[in-house]
Amino acid sequence: MKLTTAHPARHPNPTTKASALAYLIFDRPNLEKAEQFLNDFGLRTVSRSEALLLLRGTGASPFCYVVRKASKARFVGFGLQVDNRADLDALAKLPGASDVERSSLPGGGYMVRLTDPSGFRVDAIWGQARTAPLPHRPALPFNSVDATVRINGTQRPPEHAPEIIRLGHVVLELADYQETCAWYTQCFGFIPSDVQVLSDGSPVVAFMRLDLGDKPADHHTLAFAQGFLPTYSHSAYELVDADAVGMGQRVLREKGWTHAWGIGRHILGSQLFDYWQDPWGNKHEHYCDGDLFTADVPAGVHAVSREAMAQWGPTMPRSFTKPSFTPASIVALFRNLRRSPDLTLSKLRTLAKIFA
What we know:
Blueprint: E1 20-28, H1 31-41, E2 44-48, E3 52-56, E4 65-69, E5 74-81, H2 85-91, E6 101-102, E7 110-115, E8 121-126, E9 166-174, H3 177-188, E10 191-197, E11 203-209, E12 217-218, E13 222-226, E14 231-238, H4 242-255, E15 258-265, E16 272-277, E17 283-288, E18 292-293, E19 300-303, H5 327-339, H6 345-355
């Protein structure tokens, strides 16, 4: 079996071009516990039944977080917005895709359900109605040494859960790294912003942005990291400013939730970040001040290392990327080592020395 070393690259003629990350889908055994964490984190409840919990930010999306009642906690997948009905018709022709169907979730619209090569559910959404944005506090004026903008005033950010504006990105670990990266560039037109590589040049992390042409897009809406099985790494939610990130840390600490990493500033993407674990150990990131790129910016290539994760702040703890070994994950490890062209014991040992 030959290892794949090519870097993820933009596709010359993708099926569609996604225009936004619409929502994430999780299964949880306890909706009340999920809602408590997510409200403390800053998401606002849209609706809750015995079977379904929906939450939103202050932006115009009717919801951005879906929690389904289930016996086992797991990450299911996400929705990607497309811009016209023809996109859905094209996606519906792909192998394994559903027919175009109406969405029963708030905002309505139409959707096609797909499954990516790593087994994650991907809903392509079109025609969802926007909702009225909710008010949020403005960014605090900042006195710098070169620009004094606040005179005879003080800084007093409100002492409550930060107001999440929107869902920003999701990061996944993959066994089939190359095939999955290629699927998103071909099916949804994602563009690699930055790729991190091992010393032999083989890629192990890809930060992927939306192709919005001349309109600036987040440095990454999806990011993929080489792992030994497909799993959720974290998701990120934009706040209005750095004081909101700091206040979020204070509130979540006082509420007794588990901190994962932060506060710091990333190198690739530049976000000010702070990470927290939900009741099932899944990481959720507060961030602000991320990079924005237009479609013409080429991909960067960088050596991967623990130090390459942040410009400043605490060093990324070992617990942040330490895998959870269960009987099922151990079976998956050996199965994927035998069949995936992206995995070898040597590569996994190298990644473990860097991150685990």
